[in-house]
Every structure is written in C-alpha cells, then in structure tokens.
Amino acid sequence: MEIIIQQLINAVQLGAVYALIALGYSMVYGIIRLINFAHGDIFMVGAFIGFLLAVKFKLPFVFILLLTMFLTALLGIAIERIAYHKLRNAHRMSLVITALGVGTFLENLVRLAVGPQTRQIPAQLSNNILHLTNGIVVTEDKLLIIGISIMLMIVLWLFVNKTLIGKAMRAVADNIDVVPLMGINVDMIVSVTFAIGSALAAAGGIFFGQSYSIEPYMGIDLGWKAFIAAVVGGIGSIEGAVVGSFILAGIEVFTVAYLSSNLKNGIAFALLIILLVIWPYGIMGKPSLKKV
Amino acid sequence: MSLLELNNLTVSYGPIKALHGITIRVEEGELVSLLGANGAGKSTTLRSISRLIPILEGDILFNGKSILNLTAYQIVSLGISHVPEGRGIFPSLTVMENLELSSWTVKDKKKIKHNLSRIFSIFPRLEERKNQLAGTLSGGEQQMLAVGRAMMTDCRLMLLDEPSMGLSPLLVKEVFKVLKEINNSGTTILLVEQNANMALKIADRGYVIENGRIALEGPAEHLMQDKRVKEAYFGKEKK
Ligand SMILES: Nc1ncnc2c1ncn2[C@@H]1O[C@H](COP(=O)(O)OP(=O)(O)OP(=O)(O)O)[C@@H](O)[C@H]1O
Ligand SMILES: [Mg+2]
User: Are residues B74 and B110 in the same domain?
Assistant: First the structure.
C-alpha cells in the first residue's frame, strides 16, 4: 500500500509536467486548429532559460519561475507572429510543417548557444524528506512542485472560464469568424493564448529540470507524450489535457514499478490507443463542428 | 450627411465579381431593407461594410468618414454591429457569456447593465435561459440571442443578414416587431432579407439588388406596389 501511494506521488509529479505542456497544445489547437509541434521545444527553451537564470543570477526560485514564464511567453508570441500568423488561413499541412521547422530551429539554436551536453538546473528547493503517515516519504521540493503546478492549472481554469479574455478565447475556439463582429481583436486573443501556453510549458520545463537533467532535444520526447496526452484527453479541452496527462503518467509510472521500464512506452501507448478507440474524440473532447 | 454611404462599391471573390459598383445610402434613424434573390450580393454588401472582405473599388463612409482603412473589429467601436447570416452565436458559451462578450467595446458598466436589462425585457426567454449553452437554444431563440448580442454592442447602426431565416411565420413576425421597436428607439437598421413582404412592411426605404447591381430603390410603400418586385419576390419565388 505504501508503495502504491509512493508511486502515485511520482505519477502526479510526472503528470503535472505533462499537463503543463499538454495545456498549450490543447489551447492552441482549440483556437486556431494548429498542432503546434514546436511546443515541446518551447518547453525545452523554458527549461534552459530557467537554467541560465539559476546559474547566472542566483535568484530565488519564485523569481526564476516567474521570469522564465514571462520570457518564454514572449517567445511564444514571437513565434506565432513571425511564423504562423501569415499562414492562419493556409492549408493545415503548411502550418504543421512550419511548426516542425520552428521546433528544429529552436533545438539547434539552443544547441548552438549552450552545447549539446546535458545540464542540471542547480537545486534551489529544499529536498528535505518529509515523513507522511504510514512510512510514506516525500521530498519538500516534490510537494512544492506538485502544489504550484496544480495552482497554475486552477488559475488557468479560472482565467478561461471567468474572465472576459478567457471567454473570448473560448469564443475564438467556437467560431473564429464571428469574433471580430463583437469588436474583439482575434490577433490579440491568439497572442494571449500562445503566451499562456508557452508560459505553462516553461513552468513545466523548470519543474522537470528540478528532478531530471536537461538537453536541447528533451522537448521532442516529452512534447510527443504531452501531445498524445492532450489528444487522449480530448484536444481543445483544458480539463482533457490535464486528465490525459495524469492518465499517461500513471500508466508509465506503474508500468515501470510493477512490470518493466522497457515496457513503459509500449504499454502506455497501447492503453492510450484503446482509450481513443473507446472515446474517438478524446475523453473530454467533442466532435469538431468545424472542418479542418 | 447620411449615416452610411456606399459609393460605387465593387467587390470580387478572386476573379468573380460579386458587386458591380453599388451605391446605397442609409440616413440616421432609418430602417432600410436590402432585398434580393439567392446569390444577388446581399451578404457580400454587409460583409464589406463590416470590413470582413476586401474592396476592389468604391468607398464606404460611416458618419461622413471613410472606414476602408479599418479592420473588422475596429468597426464595432465606431457603432456598427453586424448580425451575420446563420446567426453566428458561440454554441459552447452560455447565453449570458455570449451577451457579455458582445459588450467588449462598451466601457461603461452601467450602460452594459442597462442594455442587458433592456434585452431581457424584450426577450424574456433569453433571461430564463441565460445559463444555458447557446448551442442548445432553438433556432428562434438563437436568433433572439443574435439580435440581443447586437444590442449589447451599443450600436448606432445594426446590420442584419436574413434574421427570418429558418423561423416559423409567427416567430418572424415577432422578430420583425422587435426590430421595428429597436429602430423606433433610435438605432438605424440595414436589413437584408429575402422575405420582401415582411421586410418592406417595417422599412422606410428599400433597395433591390440583382446580380451585384442595384436594380430598384425607393420608399418601401412604392416598392411594395412595384410590379417587378411583386413578380420577383412576393408569393412564390421565381428567380
Ligand atoms: N467566399 C466566397 N468565395 C467565392 N464566391 C463567393 C463567396 N461568397 C459569396 N460568393 C459569391 O458571391 C455572390 C454573392 O453572394 P452573397 O453571399 O453576397 O449572396 P446573397 O445575396 O447573400 O445570397 P443568399 O440570399 O443566398 O444569402 C454569389 O454568386 C456567391 O456565389
Ligand atoms: Mg446571404
């Protein structure tokens, strides 16, 4: 029983990182029907910005987190403006190819800037061991990361559902052509969406870097997994991205714990395919009314 | 000076011209109907005014000023609101959220409240369903929501694209009555319709558009008597 709970905590931590990435995939797809394949690399850039800030400036963790989220948000806005904006009404395939290109560009840019070797973000959080009941142990940093991640998701949910800009984002997802007739600047809403998605991915990058080493190609694998989590949850749905991410992380962690780490991806993806057969539009997704 | 002037407006979709230099004027306070058969260019006219599509030639003046260099979302803060063909509501937002969003350009909170209570007094049905998803409303209710949304923008000029489409005769009557009320309270209306009979009954003046050209224009009662209008649009549709 203790082991199960211990693994559950690990799954929640991994799931939180997946979710922070998956949210950006899902939100961007929701509003402009773009699968932003550069998103995993934005996550990677976020991790490296956090790394550089931690090494160079020795700022408190919260500052590094916020500053990294801010800078990565600007990067997301810039990518959309420069690479995707003109293609908004182009064939979806052109957009996907462009996104893959942007991703490759970011990987090479970071590799050029800091080299291909793996790095470690200096530990800034206390990793004191806390003893919970029944001999379950957890480090403080883990708990803090899980806490901040869940808080970010709650803030996002409130933003999207309760604020006027959030409602405008959902309106763009519903019917982008009508939004200007409400006096709303669609470009602004798209920028906000990229900013939020990128900032969350950056937070995911920093959290990931607290437990694992980082390198310029780390966004490929994690990006794919987060993307798949978003699809399984129902791409376009915020709740779906979170649900899909925790399911994926749960499957992975328990496969490693009870079966074999070699089977991790195989079993995870097999189960995800089964979930998609049961819910073709994802667990929380709806059939799209719009043609893509 | 007219509130809205379309001067020699020419619009094309790719190589195909949809409007061949049309000229329309709408005076402040008027209700003007724009009639025409399928594909005549009615929606294209409204979409040009809202700056949703580019213009080849001609000019559009609102309140005496050209609006050609503005983009669609900026038109709304000038005071022009467009209820598009097919209503264009946001189905996965609630009725209330739809209304809230359309007050985006209105900064005065009191005004928003006032507009909302006015809409709810005209369409009590919307108030009853304010927390319902707009996509689950009936066609008639969706049309009410679309008109309500336009009222929320606090507009001087309301453009309506076939608000009678898909509604029962009884509901059409109700919607048109509301449009006349909105007009009487000071909002200028340019109404696109295929339902010529109803549209001319509430209009001050009308235009008939055929193949992208203005074929007829005049006071509504004259048009109602006009033989060509009668033949083309009353009773059975011939075109
Ligand atoms: N997006 C488009 N691309 C190409 N041609 C178009 C487009 N939209 C409209 N047209 C053409 O322009 C002409 C005018 O269309 P418009 O939609 O303005 O007609 P309408 O008078 O509103 O007709 P309806 O009563 O059927 O709505 C038609 O011949 C139509 O085929
Ligand atoms: Mg039309």
Answer: no
Tell me the pTM: 0.91
Confidence band for A291, pLDDT divided at 50, 70 and 90: very low
> Per-residue pLDDT tens for A176-210?
999 999 999 999 999 999 999 999 999 999 999 98
- Are both B160 and B228 inside the same structural domain? yes
Cβ-Cβ contacts under 8 Å, A164 against chain B: 100-101, 104
Which three-class secondary structure state does DSSP give residue B80?
A: strand
A168-185 burial, b for 16+ CB within 10 Å, e for fewer?
Answer: bbbbbbbbbebbbbbbbb
- Beta-carbon separation of B101 and A178 below 8 A: no
Residues B94 and B140 in one domain: yes
Structural domain for B221, as ranges:
1-79+156-169+188-234
Q: Is B239 helix (H, G, I), strand (E, B) or coil?
A: coil
- Residue A170 in contact with partner chain B when CB distance is under 8 A: yes
Q: Are residues B230 and B139 in the same domain?
A: no
**Tens-place pLDDT, residues B62-73:** 999 999 999 999
Rounded distance, CA B162 to CA B148, Å?
15
Q: Tell whether the torsion through CA atoms of B64, B69, B72 and B73 is positive or negative.
A: negative
Reduced to 3 states (helix: H, G, I; strand: E, B; else coil), residue B237 is coil
Ligand 1 midpoint to CA B44 (Å): 6
Tokens linked to B151: 């009222």
Half-sphere exposure of A173 (CA within 13 A, CB side): 24
Task: Number of helices (H) and strands (E) in chain A: give both, helices first.
Answer: 10, 2
Residue A33 has a pLDDT of 87
The strands making up B213-219's β-sheet, listed across from edge to edge, are B80-83, B157-161, B188-193, B31-35, B205-210, B213-219
| Residue that terminates a domain, selected from B154, B180, B205 | B154
Alpha carbon separation from B233 to A257, B36, B173, B196 (Å, rounded): 75, 8, 18, 6
Residue-averaged pLDDT of chain B: 92
B109: tokens are 């909170």
B54 touches ligand 1 (CB under 6 Å)? no
Q: CB distance from B81 to chain A under 8 Å?
A: yes
**Chain B residues in contact with A165 (beta carbon < 8 A):** none
Smallest CA–CA distance, residue A161 to chain B, in Å, is: 10
